[in-house]
Amino acid sequence: MLKFDVTYSLPQQHFIDFTFFIDNNSEPFLKIDLPSWRPGRYEIGNFAQNIQQVRAFTNLLEPLRLEKITKDCWLVHTKGEKKIVFKYRYYAATLNAGSSYLDEEQLYINPVNCFMYIKDRVQEQIQIQFIIPSNYHIATQLSQRTKHTLIAHNFDELADSPLIASASLKHLEYGVESTTFHLWFQGDVVLDEKKISDDFIKFSTQQIKLFGDCESKDYHFLIQVSPTYLYHGVEHLNSSVNAIGPGDKLMETSLYTDFIGLCSHEMFHLWNIKRIRPQVMLPYHFKHENYSSMGYVYEGITTYYGDLILFQCGVYSFEQYATEVNIQLQKHFNNYGRYNQSLADSSMDTWLDGYIPGIPDRKVNIYTEGMLSALILDASCIAQTEAEYSLDDIMKLLYNDTYKKGTGYDELTWKSCIESVTGHRYDWYFNDIIHGCGFFEKYLDDAIKSIGLKIVVEETTILESRYGIRSVWKEGKMVVIQIAADSNASVKGLAKDDQILELNNIPIDSMNPLLETEYLTPLLKVKLLRNANVFDYIINAGGPYFMNRKIMLDEEATPQAKINFAKWSKKNHV
What we know:
This protein has 574 residues and is α+β, with helices and mostly antiparallel strands. The chain folds into four domains: 2-166, Sandwich (Immunoglobulin-like), CATH 2.60.40; 170-253, Zincin-like; 295-453, Neutral Protease Domain 2 (Neutral Protease, domain 2, Orthogonal Bundle), CATH 1.10.390.10; 462-540, Pdz3 Domain. It contains 16 helices and 27 strands. Strand 1 and strand 2 form a beta hairpin. The longest helix has 19 residues, at 193-211. The protein starts with a strand and ends in a 5-residue tail after the last helix.
């Protein structure tokens, strides 16, 4: 068994002290590694930048020679010693769902950030002893040998098991079938315990029903509550971390909608990625990229179901659900990257720049486009089978044919599951939606209509919809954030980050031009500032660009569309 001691002395300085006890060593040179990335975030994390004071010793604490041979690998010259003591410190000062954090109130660790391992011994059991205040409790999916001692069966389990140690944890508990669910809240928060329990029971029941079982006997929602705005989640094998804020507004409708949606999304990952996983990620490789073109399955479908299930089980009203879909629709139609890179390629490129905007119009977002691709697939499956089957059945088949048989999936496996359930070929779906560019609009309206809904298109502002200029107010300045690629504004020379000074000779510092539409004419004179230079342009109206799109119930839905709606939503069409 490998062992760690974890402690700290000055929590306000955010340094966690690790001592790694290695016995039964038989190597003259021992490599000790730190992961480079964490599952659930498909980009390199470079956690070693937070490591300080790395030292190696004999069991008698005599120093051993130590070399750093890569950015996150250390070589110990063991001198034939059987027992090695490896010490280091980790700086934990970032609080989100995938980080580690230490202060006077809590010790919060995502082990994949900061626990080191020996490549040839990753299957050994690991004991972690926490030397922390006696009144601290630990919330985690790991087994607890004593109050402050945890056991992981191997490094994979340890890396996938976040924990919160604190004296101020708030705990709620509920059961669904054979699973006990734990909600652990860390931070100042106002809770309506009955509403939270009722809503979590509803969506947990719905998700288990979809897949037919839940292997977790205990599932833990670790909820980090911030006093300021925060929204972030990460999935794990039998738990998730959900970071939300501000805590004093958690039960207000807007933030609570975000919170319940976040937790539903992360719990769906219990099946979709933690168990149903691409073959290339079996096992995870912690030292380098785990490339996959199938982010539209493990993130897109999860995004789709995270909100849909809340509507199906009655936690969301249709209006709340529609609001979430509308956000994704706007992101899709406002992104001209959909004409330049496919959904599959954008999945690969999460490892390049998938979590930042990147250069204009280069790529798409696997969460947004993946969610819409799932909607198209679900609606198509329901329509093709006359409401006998849906995406639920495809996901259940994928679960049973891969995870239950001890294997992963690739695109051919996924395509086979779709065609097996629907009885139809889906070449069009993979050619256009997954590997094509700019084809979503060809299918989206028909998909929405087939399940008894419709998309309503409205102007946003004159400046956006007729001139293709999106802007925001930033520190009292009107700054361009996007120009429609096919607009006259783009041709004439407007660009992202320009500061607009005047519209039709009217200074904009004293009015909001997004509202003052009388200042906008078919020919718009724009004065702007760029790199300390002033430019004047005459822009022709065109478009429409950047229109507002929202889904609504279709009052003219056909009888079959109403049947399809019932299959899709688990509710009757009204």
